[in-house]
Prior knowledge:
Layout: E1 2-7, H1 14-23, E2 27-32, E3 44-47, H2 67-77, E4 81-85, H3 87-94, E5 101-103, E6 111-119, E7 135-142, E8 146-148, H4 151-159, E9 163-167, E10 178-182, E11 188-191, H5 209-221
Parallel strand pairs: 1-2, 1-3, 3-4, 4-11
Antiparallel strand pairs: 5-8, 6-7, 6-9, 9-10, 10-11
Amino acid sequence: xxxxxxxxPGSNCDRDLAVALEHAGAQxxxxxxxxxxxxxxxxxxxxxxxxxxxxYLRCGAIAAQSPIAAALRTHxxxxxxxxxxxxxxxxxxxxxxxxxxxxxxxxxxxxxxxATLTVATRDSAFTEGYQAGQQISIPVAHHDGNYQIEPDGxxxxxxxxRVAFTYAPSINGSVGDIAGVLSxxxxxxxxxxxxxxxxxPVTGGTDGAALFRGLVGALTQA
Length: 222
């Protein structure tokens, strides 16, 4: 399984994401935001957390206009897998690869702490390493993680079982306590919490490791 991790100016979780994927068994290459193409044979593109372009304009808005963005869209359109974490989730909404938007947290405060999540579905390569309804602890570090979508869009996400994770309890005002959502083909996941920061016992919890193991296992078998 081959993965590419994109680095933008201001990314600060790109190495963490690459290491988590490597520990799960993936071959990882690093991609710069000014690259116009992805390497051949890439199964998964990881869009990491951080503050791409300093979060000017809207979080992820400038990154969505970078040279690599067109290649990322093409990769997703042909059925490639994409994982966007925190700022990466924001980028994916700006690219219209996922519905909704990430707004300022309720209370207008930056949150940096462990968060309890409920696994809302295991019907995806990203979540099949968990049990539906399982509660896990994954760190958050965001100021604009308040996920919002119009009522019809929320109903569609729920009807199609595309809510991947929810907060338990709510921490930032997200509608439906949503922490992560899937695309219609279930091959794109955006989530605000940082599973790459919970994938090694040396640095804390390991509840995020199952996401990477399950993902690598599913794509290796495919």
